[in-house]
């Protein structure tokens, strides 16, 4: 079995495992579980996490060029570390408009926008759960409910930082740092996609005479010139 076959056969089970991971983590944190219930949810989390780690290692071992595969599949590594991000792939249906054949650039920008927004929403949700879990029991903690945690995650990912809620523990501050850097990265990616779309729309509205020729157009022009040069009359070549 090669890497592509393994990946194709494990897509649905991994999507189910990702959803199970999200449900178990949400239940454990929001429900503030203790005792056996907490232990069961923790086992579910570890089991689903192990599934993603094993999947990543198997795909890496089946790859023909492991070094190249590692470099070109950093997103797969991110999903293995945070399995819930695999749910972003469910948004793929939103990047396809029936009956339309967008250009490669438009399709890429659409995917960036949809996946970026989806990843941002999931990041806010997961960060809210994580910071609530580590801050709720802190002696000086001020993030005590899920809604407070969501508010904190929203103002942090947008780098607004009102300061009404903030982490006081070391793990909470690490989570906050990751959310801030992720928010800056997502904002940059989405802004670049929007800027590219605006430039393309502006270029379409300009006069064709003002547009630079592409390499393909130059090749076509040179081919026509060569074809004309080849049709010369017999003799010394003079008209």
Name a few traits of the molecule:
8 helices, Helix Hairpins, mainly alpha, 239 residues
Brief summary of the model shown:
This protein has 239 residues and is mainly alpha-helical. 70% of the residues lie in helices and 0% in strands.
Verbal overview:
The chain has 239 residues and is an all-alpha fold. It has two domains: 86 residues; 133 residues, Helix Hairpins (Orthogonal Bundle), CATH 1.10.287.70. 70% of the residues lie in helices and 0% in strands. It contains eight helices and no strands. Helix 1 runs antiparallel to helix 2, helix 1 packs parallel to helix 5 and helix 5 crosses helix 6. The chain is flat. The N and C termini lie far apart (67 Å). The relative contact order is 0.07. The mean pLDDT is 82.
Terminal Cα span: 67 Å
- The SS-based structural class is mainly alpha
Helix-strand string: HHHHHHHH
Shape: flat
Question: Residue ranges: pLDDT <50 for 5 or more in a row?
Answer: none
Return the CATH class of the largest domain: Mainly Alpha
Radius of gyration: 26 Å
Helix content: 55-70%
Beta-strand fraction estimate: under 5%
Number of strands: 0
Helix count from the secondary structure assignment: 8
CATH fold-level assignment of the largest domain: Helix Hairpins
Overall tally of domains: 2
Give the averaged pLDDT, no decimals.
82
Largest β-sheet summary = none
| CATH architectural designation of the largest domain | Orthogonal Bundle
């Amino acid at each position: 079995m090669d890497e592509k076959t393994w990946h194709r056969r494990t897509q649905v089970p991994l999507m189910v495992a990702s959803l199970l991971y999200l449900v178990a983590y949400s239940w454990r944190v929001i429900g503030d579980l203790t005792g056996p219930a907490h232990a069961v949810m923790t086992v579910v989390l570890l089991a689903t996490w192990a599934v993603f780690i094993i999947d990543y290692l198997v795909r890496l071992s089946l790859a023909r060029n492991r070094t190249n595969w590692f470099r070109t599949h950093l997103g797969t590594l991110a999903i293995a570390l945070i399995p819930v991000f695999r749910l972003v792939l469910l948004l793929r249906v939103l990047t396809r408009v029936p009956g339309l054949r967008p250009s490669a650039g438009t399709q890429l920008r659409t995917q960036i926008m949809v996946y970026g927004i989806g990843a941002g929403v999931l990041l806010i949700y997961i960060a809210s759960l994580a910071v609530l879990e580590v801050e709720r029991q802190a002696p000086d903690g001020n993030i005590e409910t899920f809604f407070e945690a969501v508010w904190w995650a929203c103002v942090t990912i947008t780098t607004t930082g009102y300061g009404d809620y903030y982490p006081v523990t070391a793990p909470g501050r690490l989570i906050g740092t990751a959310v801030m850097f992720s928010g800056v990265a997502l904002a940059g990616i989405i802004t670049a996609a929007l800027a590219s779309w605006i430039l393309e729309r502006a270029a379409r509205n300009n006069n064709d005479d003002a547009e630079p020729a592409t390499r393909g157009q130059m090749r076509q022009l040179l081919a026509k010139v060569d074809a004309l040069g080849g049709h010369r009359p017999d003799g010394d070549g003079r008209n």
